[in-house]
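## retry 2 of 3
previous attempt timed out at serialization; input unchanged, resubmitting
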Amino acid sequence: MFEIPADLPPEAVPLAWLLGVWEGQGVVSYSQPAGDRVTEFEFGQRVAFTNDGLPALNYNAFFWRLDEALTPLTSAMGYWRLAQPAGADIPGPGLLDGTAPEEGDRGLDAEGVAALRTEDGLPLEVSVVHPDGVDELYVGALQGARITLATDAVLRSRHARPYESASRMYGLVERQLLWSWDLGAFGNPLTSHASATLRKVSGPGTTVR
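## retry succeeded, writing output
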């Protein structure tokens, strides 16, 4: 079981099991073009899912090599939200306000969230920004404590390395967050890239050590 904060917006409730800080380790194993180079190493990860009152979760992750120096590897940040049509009551773009007739009359209630469900689950949109000039927009689905995502778009700066597509999978198994990440890069099709197992160290539902 996990706790759902009383002030969590209804749109974020289906993702409540992610809230908190998770830590663990994983492995990278990726074949470069034509299979002439395989990159393999172990890494550590710390990821935080938070909510600031908006109908989305904030995502912040940091990765390091599991070498003697615990060398910093990379980081990522972004937002996870249920995909829904942008009605007139939804704020944006930019700092523009919505046109809700009354204060607080915005977003979805529990029934509205349930109405978004399809045979694949609740639709998700996830944006992830990397410090190497790559931004990803994922679309996918949430089914209970299992999430599947695939890139709808990848934006690269002209200095970024070749990277065309990705897919990710997340699941909660026996209180552990398991994830895998496939990449389509350097002209390769989607290929297994990294996976990890994380344990919640703080936040709702944390197990006392």
